[in-house]
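Field: COMPLEX_INPUT
Field: COMPONENT_COUNT = two
Field: RESIDUE_TOTAL = 803
Field: MODE = joint
Values follow.
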Amino acid sequence: MAEIKYFEGYPEYMRELISVVNNTREKRENYTPPAMSKEEREEVLKLHPDYAPGGKREIGVGQNKGELAPDPIADLLEAYPLIEEGEIDLSKVDYNPEILIIGGGLAGTTAAIWANDSGIDAEKILLVNKLRHGDANSIMAEGGTQAADRANDSLEKHFIDTIGGGHYANKPDVVRALVEDAPLLMQWLLELGAIFDREENGDFLEKWGGGTSIKRLHSCRDYTGLEEFRVIKDEFISRGIPSIEYYPAIELLTDGDNRVTGALLWNLETEEYKIVQAKATILATGGFGRLHIRGFPTTNHYGATCDGVVLAYRAGAKLRDVDTVQYHPTGAAYPIQIVGYLLTEKLRGSGAQPVNKDGEAFVFPLEPRDVEASAFSRECYVRDKGITTPSGLRGVWLDTPLIDIINGKGYIDKAFPGMKRMFDRFDIDMRKDPVLVFPTLHYQNGGVETDPWGKTNLEGLWVAGEVSGGVHGKNRLMGNSTLDTLVFGRRAAISTAEYVKSKESAGKLTLEHVKGYVNLLKEAGLKPERRAPILLPEYRGKAALARMIDVF
Amino acid sequence: MQNELNIMERIAEAAKSITTGVDATDIEHWVTIYIMGKGYQVPADLTILTAIEFAGYRFIRGCGCRQGFCGACTTIYRKKGEYRLQTAMACQSRVEDGMYLVQIPFVPAEKASYDVGKENFAASVFLKYYPEIAKCVSCNTCTKACPQDLQVMDYIQAAIRGDFEAVAEASFDCIQCGLCAMRCPAEIVQYHIAQLGRRMYGRYGSPIPEHLKKRLAEIEEGKFSKELDVITSASRKELEKLYAERVREAN
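Field: COMPLEX_OUTPUT
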């Protein structure tokens, strides 16, 4: 095969296809395809990985036995533990905080600060991280945070947008907490010193998010999650709250009677275990993108391996809505080095149009994510109007040059430095040329069922952020994930602080629940083929793996 | 139904990763890289990060978000035959033939503790917490080291002048990888200084928007309580109706 020649980042044949986009831009500039009707949405959703046949099965054991989950989730829920009861000594406690927080993304770090603000001394809190403090999807949230704080917006509108986007599967009381607290958390971020995009008069500069009826998205350029997180982490460190890194929790500990009393940690580097005894535990371990459900690439960080759901389920927690997965419509499809990387929805919120091979704007750009993603798949695989990359991926164009045409020259430089920097690294100028996109696995919609205060069905266990289930129903709206972490990180902290003050002592530490769960697995005839939590995905090259010898 | 299943399978097939899904015999272009001195043949289409994985390494450190936002995969490299040391984020850079690679697993830098609510919005705050800032010799090594191409030395000079806005503007895209601090001959911790500067600017440089204050007061007064009570207990049918009746704000 001859070497492919590249011109400004694209091979020659893709350049020719780009000229179709360039030649039709003026015609499309003032045209937006109409939003889909309910019926049209239902039709296109048949192509969504959640609704297309295959890829799921009934969970074999536990609280949600008989309910559907994607195969990789069911695999983990039906896996055997890394350690079994009796294999380790639980009598020597290494850490005994009042509140244990597992997972240091936005939710966990927010919870630590609010626990401190709720009267718990810094040294009575412990934050444990699987990787570095901040290795989380939180910092990769590009687009923004929703909060209904403009005069013509209302909490009710935010509620309706959220619950309609979630296909009415959301828990209404939890959604209410989300929308009611949102303005308060925006104020909190400003007081901590977070820098948001502003209008000239000092008002928040608010943008469109998919599936919303009004501009409600608060951004920090396209580094929103990063800005929110680094400010909160800076405050966390300033307060001297203890935190340990590279210590994943590999099991929760219980008193043997449905109360969570601590956790078993494992040093990722020395492989030594540690025991934590705590009056209350907040689980904030994030999602499951690295399971690559249905073979999709993902926007998620390296450690997004569903650990928290596995641990809580084994301890007896109830799950909900784990049958649905969010695929972000605009993952990068080209070049191959960045396939699956997130291209923020704010691009479409600022005027970038999805365009097919023939230069047609084929879909309303801001449908809820599941609808938009399915429309891209239909364009590529049913209507055959996608663009195929040299590596065989298909995608549609996202016409980014429209952004500067609509908002004025220089807008991309100012509002999307992260996106621009990424494409620049591969010689693509997104101000001049469109970029190629295809859906990518983005978010765990469901998880451990929560109430409006982050409480689970287990005493002593709270959840916050992506690991939880209930607030987003079966499809999360843009800007509601960072909001979720802030609102429920805070609420879980307030609720746990109240709880630990009422508790004289921590409960006893056992792995009885693990013993019971193993018995259930055996009774269900499930063989010990897999173990979980998996902690990290397996990305080592297959040729190298095939020749590995396990010596140490 | 069969058609949709078939489409899912075709999507999965197209998305197979080079590292874990493609046979070596199907890969056309290869390069040689040196991971901490050891040579490996890797496919030319990989990033530095995935090339190291292809070679058989499992990351514990040196890998985070894998998309250029977290600063975990900071890499220093020199190319064969070149004298220059270069920096990159391993997840954001194409692997090149003859790269000698090493990753920085941890940056031993001290972050000061402070309460931004109690500090003076003046240049003195930088000297108070990071007095070594005065040792900057304007050598620009920090700027050259920055994998985000930020003007690091410029914002340090702005901090010395007490120009918080310039510090915030120039350092905003910082992913806190710490390379600036690792290379600085004056042992300044640029990225922590920038964080202090941004928080001070965020806190004092722009006031809380009036519309936010107003909304908070309305919530406090219970302005939305009744309508939220109604909507929280509404039936699915009622919610569907409200959703369908939404009027989209004009652009």
